Amino acid sequence: MEQIKLFFDEILKNTTPERPPWNKEVTLGSSPKWSYIDGCMTMAMLKMYEATGNQDYLTFLDTFIDYYIDEEGNILGFDIAEHNCDNINEGKVLYPLLRATSKEKYEKALKNLYAQLLEQPRTPKGNFWHKEIYPNQIWLDGLYMVQPFYVQYDILFNQGKNQSDIFRQFQNSYQLMRDPKTGLLYHGVDETKTAFWANADTGCSQNFWTRSHGWYAMALVDTIEFFDETHQEEKRMLIEQLKELLDTLLNFADPKTMMFYQVTDQGAREGNYLETSGTCAIAYALMKGARLGYLSEGHFEKGAEILQSVVKHKLVKTDGEYVLKDICLVAGLGGMPGHGSYKVRDGSYEYYISEPIVTNDAKGIAPLVFAYAELIQHKE
Question: Is the pTM here over 0.90, yes or no?
Answer without folding.
Answer: yes
